[in-house]
């Protein structure tokens, strides 16, 4: 088990390194910060001076080497725009993003599990039809559109929720719902399918044979087993949720990593982009590792040699 | 203070005043700042270090915490601020007489030391000032006495008093700046301005509090909370629900709908951003002035303003904006006349038009791509087959800097100096994608720049505009209006130079 975790950690480091290479070269391919950083009156000489001062006139390979050498010490450089160390800037925004994404995940699970179970136990019936309809809608609705519609309805027309920004619990409802909707739809279908499979298993028949009430058969025997694949999918979906958070954080001006990163990309603030990519990639890799370990623990049939 | 508490406090103050003045018809305004106003803006400053600001959005906001040596009034005229007066001693020396008794927020005195320290810091290469280009004419700053400084420039610089105003001359306290260090000054400014920065959580909120000892007199509002709200729809929603009292910008398409809301006031003002298409006059057929004039006749700019900006814009005859010094309304724009365009092209030897390319981009401070699409459409109709290349702004920038643009590219320049010569010099710099040069124009500008008297400068700009119009080195386009939305409980007048000057902001009633 220890060897397994060690191997996975080595892979994780390689993945993060790979992500950093790709993101480094991609951001440089698309533009130069000089034009954005300097006022319009800047002359060619002043632009060249700026590029030299920040080392943007060096070959890319050298710039990457310089970046890597510092990065191993946790130093991603000073943000061009904010004039502060980029890693702490990103780290300070992590709690907001975690609050949003975790709320979204919980919301998706809390809605998806009962809906999926009901659909499975009433397979082919009206409830199944409604649940699958909801799932289909949830998967096909673009989240940015939904976000704006929610603002118009819940904030402007009904005045029950704040329009944007971060504050109390009320502030997180709409952005979390906008992120949750696609995951909720996916999970509902998943729970329904696995539940249907599990309900056909022998131990379920045994439980019924014992004369247990149907509610207990579903909740005590079938559901725990049906939820195991859910753990994997939720873990794998975490990356997508972070991706969704980028869009939703921008719409709601939610002060998280996603919003900060988008602004950094638009401003060609390379140190911040790099720090953010590093943190997000690390988060995704670690969560996937945690999910795999959790899976081993949840399903005794799987054992790591 | 919550809004409720603020309104209540305001009511109590008004009631108290009412009692005090008894039967007097008009209650005098309370002298002490009161209440809170919440503002939703699309962008927040990147820093409060005036030498490291990036973009106009930063510069137009941090003036609320600082002062320059000069300032602008509501009409955009240059007025005294930390300098009471200034004069040019000789072509390269400007003398500023400083205001006495001004204190920084922390109590430090403002004097000639502050000016020298600030300008030395701005021009010191170690500062890596982003705004360095705007102060690059400064050679040195000399203290004459505690309230007089001479700023010596490398070459005559008639714009220096403007530069050293709200644009790039915000004054720092030497003691505080040295004490907190370069990184901390970004979030812990200490200016002489009307407001103090209380808290700033980036991407979240920024709180300003009135400087009750401000030398112009205390501002009217005690607390101003600024929330960045990036998404247009969310920003408008925040105004509609009363979460904020003032927002900017507002997409032009939403103006009419919001004007129908009786709780809101929508104000528009021409922004000094001059849209134009740069023509590479070095490359045939654009070296022929008839071709350039034909392009100007071919594009229906009024129709573009009507359909894309819903009429909230101003057609420009040249690259001089309406709010600039010496704008000459007698220089009329090229009328939209496709037949004239075709005739001119035929005269120039292109009866069947020709093929060319036009660069546009997305992701800059304003939308350049939609007007570019419309322009391309009009040029096609006149027989000029245009291939449009769309870039991301940060990818287009390096192409322009390296002179690798297409023969035509759309661009806009913000005339933050409100001075035509600054814009025209930039547009005719002979590099960075702009290749038009004209000796007579240079001569006219040099003469204007040697004139310190504004009114005499203004008179001379008429001829400049006539010459540029006839030469047509650009397809002249328009300036769009800036749009501000506010609740009817506040009073705010947007300024013509885009500065978000909150000193004059007040609560009604």
Catalogue the unreliable spans of chain B: 1-30
- Output the number of helix runs of chain A: 14
Radius of gyration based on Cα positions of chain B: 25 Å
Instruction: Give the tally of β-strands of chain B.
Output: 21
Largest interface comes to: A-B, 45 and 50 residues
How many strands of chain A?
A: 0
Write a concise synopsis of the structure shown.
The complex is a heterodimer of chains A (305) and B (509). With 305 residues, chain A is mostly helical. Chain A has 14 helices and no strands.
Please tell me about this protein's structure.
The complex is a heterodimer of chains A (305) and B (509). Chain A is mainly alpha-helical. Chain A is 76% helix and 0% strand. The model of chain A has no long low-confidence stretch (mean pLDDT 89). By secondary structure, chain B is an alpha+beta fold. Chain B has helices spanning 3-21, 56-62, 112-123, 160-167, 174-184, 232-240, 255-259, 289-298, 301-309, 338-347, 369-381, 393-401, 420-427, 439-449, 454-471; strands spanning 34-41, 70-72, 78-80, 83-90, 93-98, 138-145, 148-153, 195-201, 205-210, 221-228, 246-248, 264-270, 273-279, 313-315, 355-362, 385-392, 408-414, 474-476, 478-487, 490-491, 506-507. In chain B, the strands form 5 sheets. In chain B, strands 1, 8, 9, 10, 11, 12, 14 and 19 form an 8-stranded mixed sheet that branches. Chain B has a 5-stranded mixed sheet with strand order 16-15-17-13-18. Chain B has a 4-stranded antiparallel sheet with strand order 4-5-7-6, covered by helices on one side. Chain B is globular. Classes of the chains: A mainly alpha (305), B alpha+beta (509). Chains A and B meet through helix 2, helix 3, helix 8 and helix 13 of A and helix 6 and helix 12 of B.
